[in-house]
Amino acid sequence: MNINGVFVNYTDVGSGEAVVLLHGWGQNIQMMEPIGNNLVNKRVVIIDLPGHGKSEEPKEAWTVYDYASCIHTLLTNLKIDEPILIGHSFGGKISLVYASKYKTKKVIGLACPFKKQIVKLSFKTKALKFAKKIPVLNKLEGFAKKHIGSTDYKNASEMMRKIMVLTVNTDITEDVKKIKCPTLLIWGTNDLQVSIDDAYELEKLIKDCGVVVYDGCTHYAYLERLDQTLRVIKSFIGE
């Protein structure tokens, strides 16, 4: 779908309540399929965020607010006016901004940053070590090696570098205070990218918010304990 001159790739399957899944930085639709493929009684929309997967890069440096606006336009065109949002990391940050501005039924944030971040360029090596321990990622074979941790600034195009800088330097604290819909956060205690302390801080900032903590898990906690994640999600949004 073309949104303001940018082609956005997405999948749209099933029927029922609309659940929209947004992946993390440097990744694509595949990273959210382990969740989406198991929500068999829902209409599941998974989006390649612009600059990722098969979607085109934005023609200018987008902020997280521009991404939220793009998602809203796409969903409006799909006649989805009150989505359930599930977002990991960068996709989670977009989900929180979306919920603060547009009608949203529920939000599930998977290790989603909301304050300014310090980007660790060494993260890719660390993440690949963790990826080997995650069966779901092993099944994705070469994809994990190629995409996990590609937050690596040096691997991004000039435009995506600019967008990354804008993204990590955008504090959405005031925005999350405006979220009115039920919100659930899933976080690993060993997350080296976004501290578990941020989860507890978000819980206090959002009016109707709860946190599920996975002891010993990393930034990819939702995949490390996929079965538990699916149980938690289905309990929160309904089967």
- Count structural domains: 1
Strand order of the largest sheet: 3-5-4-6-7-8-9
Approximately what portion of the residues adopt beta-strand conformation? 15-25%
Q: CATH homologous superfamily name?
A: Alpha/Beta hydrolase fold, catalytic domain
Determine the N-to-C terminus distance: 29 Å
Gross geometry: globular
How is the main sheet built?
A: 7 strands, mixed
Helix-residue proportion: 25-40%
Named at the architecture level, the CATH assignment is 3-Layer(aba) Sandwich
Order of helices and strands: EEEEHEHEHEHHHHHEHEHH
Draw up the topology in text.
Blueprint: E1 2-3, E2 6-7, E3 10-13, E4 18-22, H1 33-36, E5 43-47, H2 64-77, E6 84-88, H3 90-101, E7 106-110, H4 123-131, H5 135-139, H6 142-147, H7 158-168, H8 173-176, E8 183-188, H9 196-205, E9 209-214, H10 221-224, H11 226-237
Parallel strand pairs: 4-5, 4-6, 6-7, 7-8, 8-9
Antiparallel strand pairs: 1-2, 3-5
Helix pairs in contact: 2-3
